[in-house]
């Protein structure tokens, strides 16, 4: 199997003019003591233009790769040869470097592009960028070993690149060379051409528009194949990350980590329609997946879709937490820890989780936790500015004093697990440290139950103190300054966090009220809600004119189990009569419930099924798509799923009897969203849909068969 590794560097800025950097760069040849593996280089080809503005030089470089003796023996070589072609343009003040391997070129393909250009905002500074690809076709069965060696050698050389230039700059300075004049055209030229040229180097920006128009058409291809990232047009400099910015705001990253960040960011800029997340947030998703770019992209896209659906970007500005939360939710931000991380204090033991869930419903609770996380992201940014170093996570102090069996109430634990799940999925790598204080005797039992659900990386950040141990050595003082230890922990700092306490039962609301409340929060999204009853499915009509369109759907089963069907009919169903709600109008005040399929229609004669029925359980999120084969009318149907009676006996099971006694069990709720994509936008849009929903079934233009629905529990359970 061929493996392709790609590398893209940040922009490195040298605060020296281009000509001086070139003088330093030239000193690397024919050999360079700072790169021990660079044994020798010979010039194979050379070309100079008459006016000396253009200088192209091709060298054959001999490298002594640091590889195990055995591997060299198997490969039968001691040295590896590369061809390096340098094209210097003194008029434009650019140097383009291209390198590829000559040794083993049929087994391994290595390509590298580097370029030195003038800084767009300061013509006395120089920018450097490089990109490379490594494709190992075969290597005597040692492909992965060779890949590791190559990557290791390459990344260590990337680090050296800057040191080498700086070393030779210093050498030049010691020899008294601190200025190299710019190229000027030979005086013999006609006057007007010389004036037009002498002006050009002074303002290099002039060159950019004309190359940009040339590149404009195939700019996309350049970016996608990344065959030529050295093109200055491949992205405006504002879009690029420079090495100093990364160090200051994002931290010390290895070259490959920087490359992953740059490539993922570039991919988002090209394909993502909405708001692009901040660099530090993209980096969190990469860290959460050990810098596996594909896995990180998948979870990041899911999270971006989720943010859009739930309008999370606006939560801090638009949502006011209900008074109950402000009074009884015993958590809040409190200064910062010794590492400068924002500190969140949660007095979980004092908090009536059951009361909060009963008075608010888990939606409002989840929304509150989201607003806390959004605030956390904002505080990290703030602290990064204040402390002058990257701070990307916060510390959470949880006080369990007062924890009791009430906290183990099932719906409360379920709400908690759901909240943890949503937070882990959308705010990865934000928890820097979790200090659990005053853990009661029952806690170890609880901990063994919960800990398997917590990600390993996260678990390493937990510190648990029983009783008053937090006051002893290795305790709280190691992590938090004495001045800000809260009063309730025996410190001297007034802590504004609410005390918690029992939520009065008078504030409890019925399941029905909560249900309506939940929908209120949900309807801020693009979804429609529908009720489904026994004998009364909900149906949606989609008219298709162009045969190969794509119908896409995305729905959440909020309550009950349903069967999802999609039908095709050549003739239009009758418009739904208003009184279809007749029988149910009492039970469903706001329920949207429409039947389109006429009772007299027969399946197979009047309409046909185009996808096999899909049973969807309560709490599931389902996304899918169907490529239409014929024009006409398509009907999406959500139907009540009745449990078959127990197979072994004809007696009804106790559960079934109980279920049928509850009226509400005959009512299901669905939140749905559908969209039709025309065949002309088909390919492009489908791929963007696929990338933003891992759930979308892999669709190629060729597929017309069904079975493309795909259920995934993305935001579910």
From TrEMBL:
Residue span(s) of domain PRELI/MSF1: 5-177
Superkingdom of the organism of origin: Eukaryota
UniProt subcellular location: Cytoplasm; Golgi apparatus
SUPFAM superfamilies assigned to the protein according to its UniProt record, in alphabetical order: CRAL/TRIO domain (SSF52087), CRAL/TRIO N-terminal domain (SSF46938), Supernatant protein factor (SPF), C-terminal domain (SSF101576)
Domain GOLD: 523-676
GO annotation, cellular component aspect: cytosol; Golgi apparatus
GO molecular function: RIG-I binding
Region (Disordered), start-end ranges: 192-212
InterPro entries (UniProt xref): CRAL-TRIO_dom, CRAL-TRIO_dom_sf, CRAL/TRIO_N_dom, CRAL/TRIO_N_dom_sf, GOLD_dom, GOLD_dom_sf, PRELI/MSF1_dom, SEC14/CRAL-TRIO_domain
GO BP terms in the entry: innate immune response; negative regulation of RIG-I signaling pathway
Domain named CRAL-TRIO: residues: 321-497
Keywords recorded for this protein, A-Z: Cytoplasm, Golgi apparatus, Immunity, Innate immunity, Phosphoprotein, Signal transduction inhibitor
Assembly with partners or alone: Interacts with RIGI (via tandem CARD domain); the interaction is direct. Interacts (via GOLD domain) with SLC18A3; the interaction is direct. Interacts with SLC5A7 (via GOLD domain); the interaction is direct.
Role played: May play a role in innate immunity by inhibiting the antiviral RIG-I signaling pathway. In this pathway, functions as a negative regulator of RIGI, the cytoplasmic sensor of viral nucleic acids. Prevents the interaction of RIGI with MAVS/IPS1, an important step in signal propagation. May also regulate the SLC18A3 and SLC5A7 cholinergic transporters.
Name by which UniProt lists this protein: SEC14-like protein 1
Organism listed in the record: Anseranas semipalmata
Gene: Sec14l1_0
């Amino acid at each position: 199997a061929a493996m392709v590794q790609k590398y893209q560097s940040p922009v490195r800025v040298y605060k020296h003019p281009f000509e001086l950097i070139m003088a330093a760069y030239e000193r690397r040849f024919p050999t360079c003591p700072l790169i021990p593996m660079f044994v020798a280089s010979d010039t194979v080809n050379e070309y100079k233009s008459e006016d000396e503005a253009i200088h192209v030089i091709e060298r054959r470089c001999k490298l002594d790769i640091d590889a195990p003796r055995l591997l060299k023996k198997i490969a039968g070589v001691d040295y590896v040869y590369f061809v390096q072609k340098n094209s210097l343009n003194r008029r434009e003040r650019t140097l383009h470097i291209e390198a590829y391997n000559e040794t083993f070129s049929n087994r391994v393909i290595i390509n590298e592009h580097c370029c030195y250009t003038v800084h767009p905002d300061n013509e006395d500074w120089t920018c450097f960028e490089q990109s490379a690809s490594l494709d190992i076709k075969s290597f005597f069965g040692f492909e992965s070993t060779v890949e590791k060696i190559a990557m290791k050698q390459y990344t260590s050389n990337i680090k050296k690149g800057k040191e080498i230039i700086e070393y030779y700059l210093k050498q030049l300075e010691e020899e008294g060379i601190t200025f190299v004049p710019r190229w000027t055209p030979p005086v013999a030229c006609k006057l007007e051409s010389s004036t037009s040229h002498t002006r050009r180097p002074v303002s290099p920006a002039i060159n950019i528009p004309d190359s940009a128009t040339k590149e404009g058409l195939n700019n996309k291809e350049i970016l996608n194949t990344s065959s030529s990232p050295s093109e200055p047009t491949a992205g405006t400099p504002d879009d690029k990350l420079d090495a100093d910015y990364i160090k200051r705001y994002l931290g010390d990253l290895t070259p490959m980590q920087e490359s992953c960040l740059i490539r993922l960011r570039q991919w988002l800029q090209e394909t993502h329609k909405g708001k692009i997340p901040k660099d530090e947030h993209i980096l969190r998703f990469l860290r959460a997946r050990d810098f596996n770019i594909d896995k990180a992209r998948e979870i990041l896209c899911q999270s971006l879709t989720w943010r859009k659906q739930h309008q999370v970007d606006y939560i801090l500005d638009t949502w006011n937490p209900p008074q109950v939360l402000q009074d009884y939710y015993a958590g809040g931000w409190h200064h910062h820890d010794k590492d400068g991380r924002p500190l969140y204090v949660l007095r979980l033991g004092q908090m009536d989780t059951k009361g909060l869930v009963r008075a608010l419903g888990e939606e409002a609770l989840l929304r509150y936790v989201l607003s806390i996380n959004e605030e956390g992201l904002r505080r990290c940014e703030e602290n990064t500015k204040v402390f002058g170093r990257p701070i990307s996570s916060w510390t959470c102090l949880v006080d369990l004093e007062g924890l009791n069996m009430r906290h183990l109430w099932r719906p409360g634990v379920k709400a908690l697990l759901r909240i943890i799940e949503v937070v882990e999925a959308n705010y990865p790598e934000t928890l820097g440290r979790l200090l659990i204080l005053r853990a009661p005797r029952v806690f170890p039992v609880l901990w063994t139950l919960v800990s398997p659900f917590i990600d390993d990386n996260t678990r390493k950040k937990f510190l648990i103190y029983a009783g008053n141990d937090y006051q002893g050595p290795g305790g709280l003082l190691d992590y938090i300054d004495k001045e800000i230890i809260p009063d309730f922990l025996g410190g001297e700092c007034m802590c504004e966090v609410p005390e918690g306490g029992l939520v009065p039962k008078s504030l409890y609301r019925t399941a029905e009220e909560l249900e309506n409340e939940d929908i209120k929060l949900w309807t801020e999204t693009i979804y429609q809600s529908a009720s489904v009853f026994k004998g009364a499915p909900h149906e949606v009509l989609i008219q298709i004119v162009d045969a190969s369109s794509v119908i896409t759907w995305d729905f959440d089963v909020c309550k009950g189990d349903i069967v999802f069907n999609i039908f095709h009919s050549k003739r239009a169903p009758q418009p739904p009569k208003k009184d279809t709600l007749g029988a149910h109008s009492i039970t469903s005040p706001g329920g949207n419930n429409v039947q389109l399929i006429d009772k007299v229609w027969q399946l197979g004669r009047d309409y046909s099924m185009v996808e096999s029925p899909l049973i969807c359980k309560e709490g599931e999120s389902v996304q899918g798509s169907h490529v239409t084969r014929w024009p006409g009318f398509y009907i999406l149907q959500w139907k009540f799923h009745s449990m078959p009676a127990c197979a072994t006996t004809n007696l009804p099971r106790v559960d079934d009897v109980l279920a049928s006694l509850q009226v509400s069990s005959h009512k299901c709720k669905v939140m749905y969203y559908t969209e039709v994509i025309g065949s002309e936008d088909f390919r492009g849009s489908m791929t963007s849909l696929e990338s933003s929903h891992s759930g979308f079934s892999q669709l190629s233009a060729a597929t017309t068969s069904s079975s493309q629905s795909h259920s995934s529990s993305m935001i579910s359970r």
